Amino acid sequence: xxxxxxxxxxxxxxxxxxxxxxxxxxxxxxxxxxxxxxxxxxxxxxxxxxxxxxxxxxxxxxxxxxxxxxxxxxxxxxxxxxxxxxxxxxxxxxxxxxxxxxxxxxxxxxxxxxxxxxxxxxxxxxxxxxxxxxxxxxxxxxxxxxxxxxxxxxxxxxxxxxxxxxxxxxxxxxxxxxxxxxxxxxxxxxxxxxxxxxxxxxxxxxxxxxxxxxxxxxxxxxxxxxxxxxxxxxxxxxxxxxxxxxxxxxxxxxxxxxxxxxxxxxxxxxxxxxxxxxxxxxxxxxxxxxxxxxxxxxxxxxxxxxxxxxxxxxxxxxxxxxxxxxxxxxxxxxxxxxxxxxxxxxxxxxxxxxxxxxxxxxxxxxxxxxxxxxxxxxxxxxxxxxxxxxxxxxxxxxxxxxxxxxxxxxxxxxxxxxx
Length: 419
Hints:
Blueprint: E1 11-18, H1 24-29, H2 34-46, E2 52-56, E3 60-67, H3 71-79, H4 85-91, E4 93-96, H5 98-108, H6 120-134, H7 140-159, H8 169-180, E5 189-192, H9 196-209, E6 214-217, H10 221-231, E7 234-235, H11 241-246, E8 250-253, E9 273-277, E10 294-298, H12 308-314, H13 317-365, H14 371-394, H15 400-410
Parallel strand pairs: 5-6, 5-8, 6-7, 8-9, 9-10
Antiparallel strand pairs: 1-3, 1-4, 2-3
Helix pairs in contact: 5-7, 6-7, 7-13, 8-9, 13-14
């Protein structure tokens, strides 16, 4: 694909930062909450950006979109987060056109995740695409690409075993707790924050620990109550946070706050306390490590889990990659079709003009001219001609660009509009 013909003056980019080069503090500076995402979409629209999708999770923040230069997208990101262009340049990656497409497939399929095979990211991409479409910022190219990535993700999940074992942050967090704390089933566990990661972690806690001493706290109490009802757990008011922390053996923090909500002043106990911070930005202040008996672990430490299951999942990467290549080829074939669609459409209009002029001439020459028969025959011929050209342009052995130029020149097709 030498040219994209999907945008009159822009290229397609995937840019952002992830756990690979950016630590939790930097990722926190570039994280986008829901209101920031909406602001970014609105600003993109005002700046003339035609299409983009934003993802911001605990492990990455990315923008997939069209721009004349990637700095347009970088600027949008920096203006809606606490990060700077200088910080971005140190840890970021930028992919263009076919490389951007490949990157999106790997991310959406869990091959680029901190925990190999994590399929939570695909739901984020789906949700982001819906938001972009609502804001009229999802053009046919990007919508088709998102759907192709979703298709590849589904196939990899069902056709390979890459999703076996700890394939999500929420599951890995529970596994980490098991490896770090003895007698987990008998410990007092407090989960603070019941967003998506919090909900999934809660479900894994109940399922795998068989612990009946799990308490939930959320700033919005009814959100916690909805989850607690499903698992028959205890919910406490946000006002009771400090009291509940001091009664806990394990504290899991998964809030969406933009600054630390837990620090050493909230902890007024000398007994051992294991704290797992699953938030980006970090929601537990590092000063808690000054307290005796407190062990603080952040989600970045979860990637250090290496077990037999993880190694087995790695064996399925080649199969997953072959699925991606298959789906990506279908997408690229569609893209090539879009490349010559304007020419074929213009050619058909040109042939119709010939038909109208010729039928008008023959109508004047021939008595009892059979209008219906002439229409049918000429339309069938036009369809056969355009189909013939379309099949020719799909041939991998010919230069599509040269053929397009020749067709335009021979039939004098001017002012084509890219689709």
